[in-house]
Amino acid sequence: MARLVVVSNRVAVPSRDGGSRAGGLAVAIRPVLRRHPGIWFGWSGRVAAAADVTVRTIQHGHQSYVLTDLAEEDYQEYYNGYANRVLWPILHYRLDLAEFSRRDLSGYMRVNQRFATELNKVLQPDDIVWVHDYHLLPLAKALRDGGHRNRIGFFHHIPFPPPEILTALPNHEHLIPAMIHYDLIGFQTEIDAANFARYLRRECGMPSRDPYTFQAADRTVRIGIFPVGVETAQLNRLARRAVHSPFVRDVVESLAGRVMIIGVDRLDYSKGIALRMEAFDRFLSTHPEWRGKVTYLQITPKSRSEIREYADMERQIDETAGRINGRYGEASWTPIRYVNRAHSRTALVGLYRSARAALVTPLRDGMNLVAKEYVAAQDAEDPGVLILSRFAGAAVECEAALLVNPYDPESVGSALEQALSMPLEERRSRHDALFQVLKTNDIESWGERFLIALTRPVNLPNWLGQTDLSTV
Ligand code: F6P
Question: How far is the CA of 79 from the centre of ligand 1 (A)?
Fold first, then answer.
């Protein structure tokens, strides 16, 4: 295959401590680049004064990381502003939280243009370009305007709402149609793909050859469904070792024989953390027999704290956890352990394997890799139970989980009771079904499917997961 150039806002440069950020994108891209070394281009994570913005290249084996700083103004308007105060809430169906400003939009367009200008310096004509995430919706157009005819694919990691919601976005008619400059646009689920296709048909009147193949003036634009997977087998092996680490042993010992429920999420309103705690409250109030016997560990690294909605939510979750601990806690038992510290991947999988149930109850989520990682980390002989929101993309593949409505604390509370008293046989058979799905669609096959579809332009079937790849 020609050289691969991956572009995303965040870039995960390997670090010596192997520390990982919460957030699926970095985890998903690394294994792809291991198979197809090339360039990973994006933000360095550094915010600098405009005059000090630099671009630097870090070489790791055959892999180059080209990193650009963001000027303070760009960081505010592009990242905090348009990407995270406008697109993030709207794409998560939260019109009530969107704060549109024309200035942020122009900052967003400016940074996309800057990314294109920097890419222009390294791109070769036969490079395959794979762009990720909502920060870069108009990047292909900026590259095409600069004369690039490369094959350019885009993967949308988060939800894509129906046109009825998306059209509330001021200027959507300029931004969203710019996406047709990509050759292939990938989504996590059929719902997201169908929403985008409906937008193109309804708002742009674009002619289509079939439900997912559209004809632009000079190119065919294809839409595909590529649910992101995890490193299923590797995570299982890692978890087997991780339970023996001093850290995980300490945590388990500190439970003093109680069962553990785990939740791991970046601090974000889309994750439904406060409602999840309410569900735990409901569970303890309706099932007093479990008081003192179960500990709920919620690991929630802070993110985007400069944005008001995030700061408000942080306070709300702190208060909810405090209230529940005050109501039910005893000198020797804290019902909720709420931790804002980020943990290494090894520590997390060890904790997943030690937890009897995972609460993964986002209000809306593109996929949710925590759900999949939890399943991958389990001991098949004595597995824990996944309680999963029906509004997470992962619910499509994880039918064998206990699927819940995260807006209904009562149903989540009953699912908790069901999970904690589930017989071993049922836990095993549910886990086996989930594990098989995650082994078939692991992270490597996800990357390969996307790249095959991008580099070999053929008609894509509606659901790639069910396709014999030899025919693609
Ligand atoms: O895919 C969702 C995403 O925005 C990723 O881009 C990112 O890795 C993750 O969430 C964390 O968000 P942020 O980069 O804003 O900290």
Answer: 10
Rounded distance between C-alpha atoms, residue 56 and residue 93, angstroms: 37
Distances (CA, A) of 446 to 5, 128, 187, 259: 17, 16, 11, 34
- pTM for this predicted structure: 0.94
**C-alpha closest to that of 5 among 57, 65, 61:** 65
Contact 225, 464 (CB under 8 A): yes
- Residue 468 appears among annotated catalytic residues: no
Mean pLDDT of the chain: 94
Tokens of 105: 């939009």
pLDDT tens digits for range 281-307: 999 999 999 999 999 999 999 999 899
Rounded distance from Cα 85 to ligand 1 centre (Å): 13
First to last CA, the chain: 15
Distance CA 93, CA 339 (A): 28
Q: Can you read off the two tokens belonging to residue 347?
A: 């520590």
d(C-alpha 121, C-alpha 141), whole Å: 17
Ligand 1, atom 7: closest residue by C-alpha:
23
Name the nearest CA neighbour of 114 among 149, 87, 79.
79
